[in-house]
């Protein structure tokens, strides 16, 4: 591969107490088929052996930059990594996830062959895994039947896509205010709502090139702490502001679906945040799909909150997770 004719790609990896997974993640980044890359490792004040593992890799590879986070949290680490990076394209990679060796090469090749503009966002299929890639979990995602999508249809449908799936043009990131460092939950959603709102189109390459690790232990994204739940609410406000301004009635309907879902999620976790979510609904009488048909049907008779309480009791009796 003649690298002079190819763009530099910066892989930004925030690290926090990831000693159990970090080596696998660094290996998948270093062993990319696409060789014109730099790795930006930002250690977020780890207290385990993460720093020493990262330092060892830096000593062996001249294209690795290792720094300690100037702030605190993954969003701050990604922003700092972006400041240090020089790549025309950015690959965000969490310290416990894995990308295929062909991931970046496949996306760059598609960009070059199709003369993709700077305002196009390139993604790929992905799958969850546990422990190692020998233990893949659940279906291949997302469920799509076409390659190209308008930013409108993508935003309104709010497809679930981890940050690892995207290859982002630097120009798009510079049009946003970066990652919101005050958020501790759905900060990736908040960031990519703003990114996608700046795009001309979204392209999803129909190959599984990214793998998202599922943890059985409690994690930040599963935490019920009020600050984390409130961050989820704030990210939904970002979404609401974007889609209602750009798409009118369709945007209001999409916003209501999101806030109704959050209202359902918050009901037995934080009453105050649940009420905040309910206030954001344009149509407060409408009911939306929430992913639990039993609760949905029962809510028509005893109300959503009582239906969710019933689900909580049933799950406890069956020895299942509460929700």
UniProtKB/TrEMBL annotation:
Q: Where is the Glycosyltransferase 2-like domain?
A: 10-123
| A Pfam family assignment | Glycos_transf_2
GO molecular-function terms, A-Z: hexosyltransferase activity
Under the heading InterPro entries, the entry gives: Glyco_trans_2-like (IPR001173), Nucleotide-diphossugar_trans (IPR029044)
Q: Which Gene3D superfamilies match?
A: Spore Coat Polysaccharide Biosynthesis Protein SpsA, Chain A (3.90.550.10)
Q: Which UniProt keywords apply?
A: Transferase
- The lineage's top-level taxon is Bacteria
- Asked if the keyword Transferase belongs to this entry, the reply reads yes
Protein name per UniProt: Glycosyltransferase
Q: Source taxonomy lineage?
A: Bacteria, Pseudomonadati, Bacteroidota, Sphingobacteriia, Sphingobacteriales
């Amino acid at each position: 591969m003649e690298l002079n004719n190819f763009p530099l790609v910066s892989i930004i990896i925030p690290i926090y107490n990831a000693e159990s997974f970090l080596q696998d993640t660094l290996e998948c980044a270093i062993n990319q088929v696409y060789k014109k890359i730099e790795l930006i490792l930002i250690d977020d004040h780890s207290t385990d052996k993460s720093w020493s593992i990262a330092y060892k890799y830096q000593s062996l590879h001249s294209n690795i930059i290792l720094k300690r986070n100037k702030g605190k949290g993954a969003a701050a680490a990604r922003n700092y990594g972006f400041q240090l990076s020089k790549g025309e394209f950015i690959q965000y990679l969490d310290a416990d996830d894995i990308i295929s060796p062909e991931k970046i090469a496949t996306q760059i090749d598609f960009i070059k062959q199709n003369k993709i503009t700077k305002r196009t966002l390139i993604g790929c299929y992905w799958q969850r895994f546990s422990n190692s890639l020998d233990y893949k979990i659940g279906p291949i995602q997302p469920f799509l039947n076409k390659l190209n999508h308008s930013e409108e249809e993508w935003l309104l449908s709010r497809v679930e896509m981890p940050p690892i799936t995207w290859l982002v043009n630097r120009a798009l990131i510079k049009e946003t205010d970066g990652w919101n460092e005050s958020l501790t939950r759905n900060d990736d959603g908040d960031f990519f709502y703003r990114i996608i709102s700046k795009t001309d189109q979204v392209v999803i390459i129909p190959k599984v090139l990214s793998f998202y690790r599922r943890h059985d232990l409690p994690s930040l994204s599963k935490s019920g702490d009020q600050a984390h739940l409130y961050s989820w609410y704030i990210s939904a406000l970002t979404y609401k502001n974007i889609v209602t301004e750009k798409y009118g009635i369709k945007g209001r309907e999409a916003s209501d679906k999101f806030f109704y879902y959050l209202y359902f999620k918050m009901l037995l976790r934080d009453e105050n945040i649940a009420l905040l979510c309910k206030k954001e609904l344009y149509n407060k009488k409408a009911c939306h799909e929430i992913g639990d048909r039993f609760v949905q049907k029962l809510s028509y008779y005893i109300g959503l909150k009582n239906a969710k309480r019933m689900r909580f009791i049933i799950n406890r009796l069956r020895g299942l997770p509460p929700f």
